[in-house]
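Take the subject:
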Amino acid sequence: MDNEPVILVENLDKTFVLRHTRSIKEYVVWTMRGRKGELSETFKALNNVSLTVSQGESVGLIGLNGSGKSTLLKLISGVMQPNAGSVRVRGQVAGLIEVGAGFHPDLTGRENVYLNGAILGMSEKELDAKFDEIVAFSEIEKFIDTEVKFYSSGMFLRLAFSVAVHSRPDIFLVDEILAVGDEPFQQKCLAKIRELKGQGQTLVVVSHDLRRIQEICDRGILLDHGNVVLDGTISEAVDRMHNK
């Protein structure tokens, strides 16, 4: 590990507007009472969050539903933008934040390997060299020339994961992806993640499976209602969550 952070999050805020669908009667009552605009409220997903991640760290983001962990991961990945604060990332980022991101449903698996690989920074030459390995890992060889809109969620996941891990990212982000798919493939994914960790790549993982996250992460960040309540070892974070 070097001392310069590869992820620097400073004073991060993220707020969502929640719009509610109401009946026509409720809407009429709403407007007759002089209230303007849509029926909505705001939800603050992250509140002044700051943290750093160094090269080679394996970090687990944990917390109950609505704690902000997936939102934080999406902000780190660049999928979302914050309302306030900043996120700086050094190096190539890849991972599985939203199944389907970077895949086009009307293209075949083969075409999507090249499309998604290019999005993740791989050259055509690199993709040519790794294509067979990517497909073999995904175990969907028979369907590689089928349009992915006909894939099951498990098939889709296999191919998306395989492309991501073979892109050799500096920073690998994973959000609940190991909860999908059968047990043998989950174990295969875990083994690949451990391999990346052993090679010194930085990992940030979101999962509700605390036993599994302890297997692959050394550091744990516990979030509660958008706030960081503990940043320590993964065992400390899990223990604190169990004792909430």
Observations:
- Helices lie at 24-32, 69-77, 109-119, 124-138, 153-166, 183-198, 210-216, 234-242.
- The first strand starts at residue 5 and ends at 19.
- The longest helix spans residues 183-198.
- Strands lie at 5-19, 40-54, 58-62, 84-89, 93-96, 171-175, 202-206, 219-224, 227-233.
